[in-house]
Amino acid sequence: MPKITDIQTIRTRKNGTWVFVKVLTDQPGLYGIGSASDHYHARTVITAVETIAPKLIGREAGHIEDNWQTVYTSAYWRNGSILNTALAGIDMALWDIKGKEAGMPVYQLLGGPTRAAVMAYAHASGEDLTELEDDVRRYIEEGYQVIRCQLGQYGGGGFIPAAEARMPKNLHGQATAFDDEAYLETLPKMFAYLRDKIGFGPKLTHDVHEHLKPHNAVTLAKLLEPYRLFFLEDLLSPEQVGWYRLVRQQCTTPQAMGELFINPHEWTPLITERLIDFVRVRVSKGGGITQCRKIAALCEWFGVQTAWQEGGDNDPVNQMAAVHLDLSSTSFGVQEENHFAPEEYDIFPGHAILEGGYLYANHSPGLGIDVDEAKAYAILNPELATQSFYMAEDRRSDGSIVRP
Questions:
Q1: 281 is a domain residue
Q2: Which of 6, 123, 207, 295 holds its CA 20 to 30 A away from the CA of 145?
Q3: pLDDT, tens digit, for every residue of 65-90?
Q4: Of residues 121, 154, 183, 358, which has the active-site annotation?
């Protein structure tokens, strides 16, 4: 059985926000690749991987569960986003090694495929209803069955120009204000328009991105019930998930939650109490394949489905890890799609293929994806990689933060 000899990191993308883990073994040419990307803390994750590496060097690469548990408890404190991301990168790489050693794809190691391909949902948006309708129709023509609908940016439909928001006189530098009531007024009209124009055939979703106060979140879920959404995403922030009990009591609008979750105590009660319909944990933030296959198994017992989170800041390796979980799990619901630039795809031979609203894996051993290190380093802009990145800072009319 191969033993771990080294754990390296590869930083890439033009802005340096992608980080990958490469686990080397004592068998010539046998290594594994995993995703440890964090758009906002790339350098911190690299340090975390470098800190963890000495603990695992010399251990059996195939003892994946034991290695996972070793890292999970190695710093005493656990369930943090940085540790989870570093752990996930190593974990994916170990599954990649296991599959290569066995000569089969990871989804075969997880029990074999339960479907032919992975249904993905698209991201439609527009600055007004006509633009949004056109974008939705474009994705329908491409073959997508599930389409997310947004009016511009997150919170779109709820922003009021500064001149109309009646802000305090000592507030500076804020061009717009997010207003819960404006959002509650706009979103039902948006879906009424779309259903009138395109009917109830396409499955539609929407991402609230945790912008609403909890009581208004419950109201929105009720107001959208007539439009039969496929799901309403991130209605509440992780700090306010207790309100999902009220949502469930008030309406049947399906709920998807979890892209900010890092702790099992966040998703476990929502699944076991059947308070959500889709769990949206990002595979790398949940701790990798080892942890997320357990989440998928828990979902199966309670009738909840998976919709592993991707998003524009994610990468092709994490996407491939999600696809292997999707193919092998009976609790799969839908997968968020990603679009990468051609020069980015070129770095990752064996990446998933997105076509006609479906993601396709290949049949190569392991995760079936690799990183061309020369191309990865060539695309990196060292100057951009020194910059810090932060989440969008939306505020209400009094200047207080909207928690995303």
A1: yes
A2: 295
A3: 999 999 999 999 999 999 999 999 99
A4: 154
